[in-house]
Amino acid sequence: MAGGGADMTDTTTPAPAAATAATAHRARRRIPTRTPHQAVRPGARRGGSLAALPWALPAFAFVGVLLVYPFFRSVYGSFFEDNGFTSSYTGIDNYARLADDPIFGRSLLNTLMWVAGTCSCRCSSAC
Fold first, then answer.
1. Where are the stretches annotated Disordered (predicted)?
2. 21-39: pLDDT as tens digits
3. Which of 15, 38, 45, 51 could hold 27 in an S-S bridge, CB 3.0 to 4.6 Å?
4. Residue 118 domain-assigned?
5. pTM for the whole thing?
6. Counting Cβ atoms within 10 Å, is residue 98 exposed (0-12), middle (13-18) or buried (19+)?
7. Structural element, H or E, at residue 54
8. 9-15 LR contacts (CB < 8 Å, sep 24+)
């Protein structure tokens, strides 16, 4: 089969010496063999996922250095007040000030409306 199915190659196996008439029809049987396009890669059976690890490590490092570390560093820095020269711990005071700010509330509402509009356009084919 050209579609990559399990091809069967006709292979003759010799009949045993004491073959009787009842078992003579089993003298020729079909034994499945692999064709070249069905060859198994050397590391495909064992450690297939571990074999990919050296190739995935640079991507994990890239994501960690450029996305994960800055995120946690920003969250950590949000608990401090920093003027560029000195830094003092403020705890959640920055978040309390943010919750009382009317401009932040309006910008948060605008962002949520933008996200809802974008998601609804993607779900419908009208946009």
1. 1-45
2. 556 555 566 666 666 665 5
3. 15
4. no
5. 0.48
6. middle
7. helix 53-63
8. 9/33, 9/35
| Closest to 16 in 3D by CA, of 29, 32, 4 | 29
Domain of residue 103, residue span: 78-109
* Angle at the Cα of 84 from the Cα atoms of 83 and 88, rounded to 5 degrees: 50
Per the domain annotation, does 100 fall within a domain?
yes
Domains contained in the chain, number: 1
Which helix (H) or strand (E) element contains residue 88?
Answer: strand 87-89
Burial (CB count within 10 angstroms: exposed 0-12, middle 13-18, buried 19+), residue 94:
middle
Under 8 Å CB-to-CB from 81, ≥6 apart: which residues? 87, 88, 90, 93, 94
For residues 109 and 117, is the Cβ–Cβ distance under 8 A? Answer: no
Q: How far is residue 90's CA from residue 76's CA, in Å, rounded to a whole number? A: 11
